[in-house]
Write a structure and sequence with these properties.
about 350 residues, mainly alpha, globular
């Protein structure tokens, strides 16, 4: 199931939001900004080792030019931590994140409202790399701060509540996730028009929760309403529509309604082929979902190239040691065993075990 992630504050572009440097430090600022942009470029290209080297230089430039406790230094620490996570260097990543958080706490105080953005930034790094327990603690802190200064129906409360619900959902705490998804949906329905995309996102997330619990009758009308909102808000050929089509297809797949799932997945893939620079992880999800469908039908020759394409994208975007990479490798290993390629399956299973052992 492709759970939609509503807006969570970004990390890589934070330096663009900071105050322009005064003239006497402009050259230092330019050096740091250039290195930071180069880091992001290399990361987007999947050149993680080179990105790590450049990110370290950006951090050194920030420390030298702005000082060890400057917000630009914290931005560089966050960026470097993301790359460490991708490369499986979790101890280094956490060290950078903790140092970054300490800088912001020193600037603002641990309970200051300005901490919300930075707590969410760091939680996002943990969340995207499947360190859900650490992400949850930071998301909770952010929500607690917001609840002291925001009204209960403020859109930022809906964002934070949804972030926490995503954690519960991903960690199979469905009973805790449901009321939070419903709270986020209720806030949005109260403050937005009926076809606002934020409502579509909340509907999608709640439907995904129901689907994961086998409550397909509850999930289907929510997905259909979400799809209607997405198409009205964004048009029929938008990436958000792709996500909802995938999720609706997954609902039919879970009920062995393969004939209903396949055209939805093909429609999603067609849309992505029309989009310039489609979201790569969503594209990988569509390819793998279609592969899983063909696999279930015994169409192994059709499934394997789709698995390979999806896996290549995940490895490039997430890095070779991400849990989502292990999940796709697991699907491929099952296919290899089904097609009597036992040695190939064993090789993948060794890699899966290594990835999962590295996360303990």
């Amino acid at each position: 199931m492709l759970i939609k992630h509503i807006h969570i504050f970004g990390i890589a572009v934070l330096f663009l939001l900071l105050i322009t440097a005064p003239a006497f430090v402009q050259s230092s600022w330019d050096e740091w900004a250039t290195l930071s942009k180069e880091t992001q470029k290399l990361r987007n290209e999947g050149q993680y080792s080179r990105a790590e080297t450049v990110a370290e230089k950006a951090l050194q430039a920030a420390e030298k030019s702005f000082g060890p406790n400057h917000p630009n230094t914290a931005v560089s620490l966050n960026s470097l931590a993301e790359i460490h996570m991708i490369l499986g260097e979790y101890v280094k990543a956490e060290s950078s994140l903790k140092r970054s958080l300490a800088i912001y706490e020193k600037m603002y105080g641990s309970e200051h409202f300005n901490m919300v953005q930075h707590l969410n930034n760091i939680a996002k790094v943990y969340y995207e790399n499947a360190f859900y327990e650490k992400a949850e603690l930071l998301y909770r802190r952010a929500l607690n701060i917001q609840e002291k200064v925001r009204s209960p129906n403020h859109p930022d409360i809906a964002v934070s509540v949804n972030n926490l619900a995503l954690i519960y959902h991903r960690t199979y705490r469905y009973v805790q996730a449901e009321p939070l998804y419903k709270q986020a949906l209720a806030i949005r329905e109260k403050i937005y028009n009926p076809y606002h995309p934020a409502i579509g996102e909340s509907l999608n997330n709640l439907a995904s929760l129901y689907c994961d619990q086998g409550q397909y009758t509850d999930a289907e009308p929510l997905y259909k309403r979400s799809l209607e909102i997405d198409e009205k808000a964004f048009g029929p050929n938008h990436s958000t529509v792709v996500t909802t089509l995938n999720n609706l297809a997954a609902l039919h797949y879970a009920q062995a309604q393969y004939g209903q799932a396949e055209p939805l997945l093909k429609q999603a893939l067609t849309i992505q082929e029309k989009i310039v620079n489609p979201d790569q992880l969503t594209l990988a999800g569509t390819l793998i979902n279609l592969a899983v469908l063909y696999d279930a039908r015994g169409q192994f020759a059709d499934a394997e190239p789709l698995y390979r394409r999806g896996l290549a994208i995940k490895e490039k975007v997430l890095g070779p040691n991400h849990p989502d990479v292990a999940t796709t490798l697991e699907d491929m290993a099952i296919l290899y065993r089904a097609t009597k390629r036992v040695n190939d399956a064993r090789e993948l299973e060794k890699r899966i075990a290594a990835i999962r052992a590295s996360r303990r």
